[in-house]
Amino acid sequence: MRVLITGGGTIEQIDHMRSITNKSSGRTAVQIAEYLCPHAEVFLLLAENIHYQNEHLKILNFNDVKSLKNLFFSLESYSFDLI
């Protein structure tokens, strides 16, 4: 089984001084990924401000909606059973 999970918040630049973000910690996504890890191949798309490592997960980082979208499209060739 192959699973795709996203977690954490994005940071969207308004201009060179200001940005909009949210306080999503990504903890729920990490807990779900850890739970599924022994039973599935897990891809975890995680906000880059969340410092987490696990050698059994495929962790890819994003920072804004555009980079998250690019990650989704880069995984287009994979067939996921759960998203």
Give a verbal description of the structure:
The protein has 83 residues and is α/β, with parallel strands linked by helices. The protein is built from 2 helices and 5 strands, in the order βββαββα. It has helices at 27-36, 65-74, and strands spanning 2-7, 11-13, 19-21, 41-47, 58-62. The strands form 2 sheets. It has a 3-stranded parallel sheet with strand order 1-4-5. The longest helix is centred in the middle third of the chain and has 10 residues, at 27-36. The N and C termini lie close together (11 Å). The mean pLDDT is 94.
List the helices and strands and how they pair.
Blueprint: E1 2-7, E2 11-13, E3 19-21, H1 27-36, E4 41-47, E5 58-62, H2 65-74
Parallel strand pairs: 1-4, 4-5
Antiparallel strand pairs: 2-3
Strand content: 25-35%
Round the mean pLDDT to the nearest integer and report it: 94
Q: What's the total helix number?
A: 2
String of helices and strands: EEEHEEH
Helix content: 10-25%
User: Biggest β-sheet: count, sense, barrel?
Assistant: 3 strands, parallel
The CA-CA distance between the termini, in Å, is 11 Å
Structural class: alpha/beta
**Poorly predicted runs:** none
SS elements, strand count? 5
- Taking strands numbered 1, 2, ... along the chain, how are they ordered across the largest sheet? 1-4-5
- What is the general shape? globular
Radius of gyration: 13 Å
